[in-house]
């Protein structure tokens, strides 16, 4: 009883002792109800524990709780009844169907109401023979399917393509493929220790469930995304180098001062070299999504930023420079006017052949580089030649070397996107 109830119970009176007798009769708290939760820190969830932010944030809201000895037991398995209780505590979806009287869930069973609620909201169902199997340990795939179904999430992209991010995708049962794809697109899937290993049939632990539920609430816009820099982000599918398919993109405002991380299209990290005084039209691709305060995507990675590299006149200084000025961005096949620019990049004559490997340069810059480097065969080193204006070149012995990934392109005005 203690292990079943500790997952979801909170005290309704601050002075009430945390005992089995007290826990047996307390009501579950919905997310919208201010919770008098127990401490959000646990002795067995250290600073470096992978699921710590998920666990502590949910505990702070009274959605989950630990044990009377101050532990959380994050690696302990979760039963179907316990999961139903957590769902009831975390979500407030409408009841769309009546729950049957499962033969293995008597009216006085501790989780009977939670099970009926989880069924009525569409999170969970029973098994053939009118049984629920409340004490069965819930597999990870079943928990993800329950969350996706209960929140009515459907995949936007190709299911096979989305699930291709998992090296064990062939272990996902047929009934779970579409819901798991939908959960993956919404960054609800958290895989520790290997982000590309779903382990669908493995039993879900208390830490797993905390991570799934927290990310589901992020997808709803009811919890903030895990703070950047926390190690937990490394295990959220879609936060790193993995590609879970087409992200769910929402409408909203990208505020002034937002930085856009970019790269040259089709390349990871190459330089663009122009002669001082030249204006060069070019485009970049975003490498990181732009998210709103709820962690939802406003601008997905891979969006095209169009603009120009333009000369910069630094008043009172004998320095030539250039910057990138954006004028438009393509988001979900829609083009938006964009006011954004980078800081100035000063010209230099300290350029080596190694710096030019694969670079794209203007013909004017190539001529200057030949004299700087003493290399008359630059064509065998650089990647391609850009078309630049034939404007006045302000220097015969320097070039402007721009590495797109190092640019601090920042929006100069609010941008509203309608997705």
Task: Give a brief outline of the structure.
With 419 residues, the protein is of the alpha+beta class. It has ten helices and 16 strands.
Keywords:
disordered N terminus, alpha+beta, 419 residues, 16 strands, 4-stranded mixed sheet
Number of domains: 2
Query: Major beta sheet, specifics?
Result: 8 strands, antiparallel
Mean pLDDT: 82
Question: With helices defined by DSSP (H or I, 4 residues minimum), what is the helix count?
Answer: 10
Order of helices and strands: HHHHHHHHHEEEEEEEEEEEEHEEEE
Number of strands: 16
Structural class: alpha+beta
Distance between the termini: 48 Å
The poorly predicted ranges are 1-38
The percent range for helix content is 10-25%
Specify the overall morphology. Answer: elongated
> What fraction strand?
15-25%
Write down the Rg: 27 Å
Explain this structure to me?
By secondary structure, this protein is an alpha+beta fold. The chain has 2 domains: 234 residues, no CATH class; 165 residues, no CATH class. It has 10 helices and 16 strands. The strands form 4 sheets. Strands 2, 3, 5, 8, 9, 10, 11 and 15 form an 8-stranded antiparallel sheet that branches. Strands 13-12-4-14 form a 4-stranded mixed sheet. A two-stranded antiparallel sheet has the order 1-16. A hairpin with a 2-residue loop joins strand 9 and strand 10. Helix 3 packs across helix 9 and helix 6 crosses helix 8. The radius of gyration is 27 Å and the shape is elongated. The N terminus is likely disordered.
């Amino acid at each position: 009883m203690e292990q079943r109830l500790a997952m979801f119970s909170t005290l309704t009176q601050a002075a009430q002792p945390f005992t089995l007798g007290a826990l047996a009769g307390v009501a579950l708290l919905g997310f919208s109800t201010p919770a008098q939760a127990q401490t959000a820190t646990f002795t067995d969830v250290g600073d470096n524990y992978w699921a710590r932010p998920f666990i502590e944030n949910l505990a702070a809201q009274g959605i989950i709780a630990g044990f009377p000895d101050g532990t959380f037991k994050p690696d302990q398995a979760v039963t179907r009844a316990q999961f139903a209780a957590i769902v009831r505590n975390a979500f407030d979806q409408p009841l769309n169907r009546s729950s049957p009287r499962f033969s293995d869930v008597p009216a006085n069973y501790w989780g009977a109401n939670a099970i009926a609620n989880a069924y009525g909201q569409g999170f969970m169902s029973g098994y053939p023979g009118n049984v629920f199997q409340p004490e069965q340990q819930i597999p990870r795939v079943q928990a993800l399917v329950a969350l996706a179904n209960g929140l009515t999430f459907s995949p936007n992209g190709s299911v096979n393509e989305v699930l291709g991010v998992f090296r064990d995708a062939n272990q996902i049962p047929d009934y779970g493929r579409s819901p798991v794809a939908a959960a993956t697109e919404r960054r609800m899937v958290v895989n520790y220790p290997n982000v590309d290993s779903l382990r669908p049939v493995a039993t879900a632990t208390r830490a797993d469930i905390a991570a799934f539920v927290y990310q589901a609430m992020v997808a709803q816009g009811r919890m903030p995304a895990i703070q950047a820099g926390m190690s937990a982000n490394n295990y959220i599918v879609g936060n790193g180098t993995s590609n879970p398919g087409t992200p769910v993109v929402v409408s909203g405002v990208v505020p002034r001062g937002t930085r856009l991380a970019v790269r040259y299209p089709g390349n990871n990290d190459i330089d663009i070299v122009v002669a001082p005084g030249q204006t060069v039209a070019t485009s970049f691709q975003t490498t990181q999504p732009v998210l709103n305060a709820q962690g939802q995507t406003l601008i997905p990675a891979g969006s095209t930023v169009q603009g120009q590299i333009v000369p910069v006149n630094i008043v009172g200084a004998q320095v030539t420079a250039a910057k990138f000025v954006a004028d438009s961005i393509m988001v979900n096949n829609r083009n938006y006017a964009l006011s954004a620019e980078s800081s100035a990049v000063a010209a230099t004559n300290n350029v080596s052949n190694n710096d030019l490997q694969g670079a794209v340069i203007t013909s004017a810059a190539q001529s200057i580089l030949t004299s700087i480097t003493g290399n008359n065969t630059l064509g065998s080193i650089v990647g391609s030649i850009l078309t630049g204006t034939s404007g006045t070149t302000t220097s015969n012995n320097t070039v402007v070397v721009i590495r797109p990934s190092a640019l601090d392109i920042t929006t100069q005005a609010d941008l509203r996107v309608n997705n």
